[in-house]
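Sanity check

After download, print the first record. It should look like this:
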Amino acid sequence: MDVQEFERVYGSFRAFHAEYAPDFGRKQWRENSEPYLQGLLVQAEERRNAENMAEALPVSARALQRFLTDARWEDAAVTAHLQAYLGPRLTHRLAVWAVDSSGFPKQGNKSVGVKRQYCGALGKIANCQVGVFLAHVGPRGRALVDKWLYLPKEWVRDPARCDAAGIPREQQV
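Expected structure tokens:
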């Protein structure tokens, strides 16, 4: 989405953000969530990082980075809120569910779930994480409604590694 298109839908974006801002907790995180989400939509660089996003937004890279690293919110609560919001808006008899995975190239071995495995983004075996995504697709629109990070067997079989990475015990299965 380019900046002109974003300006056209800005009112709808603000209303959508207002729906979810309370889920981000503290006032500063609620406020910084708006430019961050805007940056995800309009930032044209392939690598979406705080520095690249700040070039297109009226906010500093430092504020964006602090939002990414310091803000705390309940991911499951935000996902449940999204599902409750979208359910009545997207329901249609011709709608379908789509499940797909995607690999994210990674350097090193500390990121949760990283290992040498097939990475669709690269089209080959590489060091990456793999996410599994659920989307709702139909005549009324499409939306990503859930996600999960795949944990390879090497991770699941190593509780100490999972603990060090901060993976909750109930997700180490």
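If your output differs, re-run the checksum step. Summary of this record's structure: The chain has a mean pLDDT of 88.
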